[in-house]
Amino acid sequence: MTTAVTRKQLFINNDWRDAAGGKTIEVVNPATEDVIAEVASAEQSDVDAAVAAARAALDGPWGKMSARERGTLVWKIGERLMERADEIARLETLHNGKPIFESRQIEVPASAECFQYYAGWADKIHGETVPVKGNYLTYTLREPVGVIAAIVPWNFPLLLTSWKVAPALACGNTVIIKPASQTPLTAIALAEVAKDVGLPPGVLNVITGPGSKVGQMLVDHPGIDKIAFTGDTSTGRQIMRGSAESLKRITLELGGKSPNIVFPDADLDAAIRGATTGIFYGKGEVCAAGSRLLVDKSIKNEFIDKVAARAKKMAPGDPMDPKTRLGAISSKKQLETDLRYIETAKKEGATLVAGGARADIGTGKGYFLQPTVFDGVTPSMTIAREEVFGPVLAAIEFADVDEAIARANDSSYGLAAAVWTKDIKKAHYVARKLQAGTVWINTYNIYDTAAPFGGYKHSGFGREMSVHALEHYTQVKTVWVDLNQ
Ligand code: NAD
Fold it and tell me: In the CATH scheme, what is the code of domain 6-254+459-478?
């Protein structure tokens, strides 16, 4: 599982270069604790150079290229990602710790699909003629916003980058990607792909380094027109405050504490599977993880017993083994956070029914955690309110439909939710009442590039994927032509 330490540079104007100060940051494989790469840590002058290159590209060949030609290049990025899928999936697993099954079978293909979906949009984004009063021809143009900074977290490094870069490029913008410092390798691979397929210089740039420094430089930079951010709610607030001065456009995809509601009339076997994959896919490091399991009290004990039994069988394993379904927690820091939340839940009176401790896959190394389930959680407990961002499930009971809805909505977050019932009226009634950007009925964690994704409340605003993302990467210009004789 160990690999040689590689050195990775910044990607600016289609050139690879060291950071101006020559500094680097280490990238660690969370499954082995080995340093696997040293990545350039950008300085202000590097950020300035990336912004200048991205701005120049808007006025250069990229800005002059026909929409169809641009779409063809965006399509080719998806194609090339799939040609390199094995290698890129391996990188994703190496720096994040997620199972190779997830990287190779789900996330790299979904990233490629995202580019190919938006490639199709490139020459279908157009304005309209407006029936105004008076003798005028009035029409609108949909123009790119300009230079986009894509600031991405470490949980789905390539996929969340693709959700931003693909629509941005399809709409004719240029992009500077700032991957999370823990997981920069697949953004760097994406830059290689972009150069390879013939994206002109400056259209896509990758700047690496710590978020508090390099991310902040992008937020503060007057040459950036829009920030597309996914990450923690507190960082989102900081970005919003930082963007106020230069009035940058922003879209924020933030945290979640999503409720998974199980009614007694559900297909309970399917609901048990949904409850476990809802929290344990991606090690629970999923913004939409179903981390609050709301179960009707008439079935709760039996249901939680079965969820706990499944959790106990899901031992973490070597992420590089294709059979592994639960990998390593992404970093030592995140493992410590998860363990802290587990201790707090115990102290506050929740009942631990599965997991709860660090796991060893037989190597004595790596940041592994047993899949963890708490029963007897009350809505006021920390484990019911705060995002753990790990494989830790909090089960809360409810008495009836109204209480289920009230408890589900009793959160500052509103990213996703699910309802399990065979009663079609109840399912749609509850779906309408839930304050969440995505509601799944009798399923969990299903996504498609054609379906919008984003938050209500403190889970952010703006939508990624689908036709709706195009609104965030274009601006409308109205043109009036006097036709009076
Ligand atoms: P984070 O906010 O710490 O970091 C996200 C990115 O922002 C990283 O690239 C980081 O380097 C950068 N950053 C950090 N400080 C910055 C600053 N001051 N200015 C600019 N950039 C800065 O989040 P994380 O720990 O990497 O990711 C976990 C969080 O992301 C969770 O809260 C999770 O729910 C959320 N998330 C949300 C979604 C969604 O679509 N809503 C998807 C995935 C993850």
Answer: 3.40.605.10
Distance CA 385, CA 296 (A): 19
**Type of residue found at 6:** T
- Which residue bears the tokens 């060949």? 61
Please tell me the distance from the alpha carbon of residue 114 to that of residue 242, in angstroms, as a whole number: 29
Kindly report the CATH number that applies to the domain delimited by 259-448: 3.40.309.10
Q: How far is ligand 1, taken at its centre, from the CA of residue 231, in Å?
A: 2
pTM of the model: 0.97
Which protein residue's CA is at the shortest distance from atom 38 of ligand 1?
Answer: 287
What is the 190 CA–ligand 1 centroid distance (Å)?
19
Is the beta carbon of 231 within 6 A of some atom in ligand 1?
yes
66-106 per-position pLDDT tens digit = 999 999 999 999 999 999 999 999 999 999 999 999 999 99
d(CA 182, CA 371): 23
Q: Which of 160, 7, 8, 27 is nearest to 96 (CA)?
A: 27
- Catalytic residue set: 253, 287
Phi, psi of 22 (to 5 degrees): 75, 5
pLDDT higher than 70, residue 1: no
* Domains in the chain: boundaries: 6-254+459-478, 259-448
What is the number of the ligand 1 atom nearest to the C-alpha of 464?
Answer: 40
Q: What is the pLDDT of residues 401-424, one digit of tens each?
A: 999 999 999 999 999 999 999 999
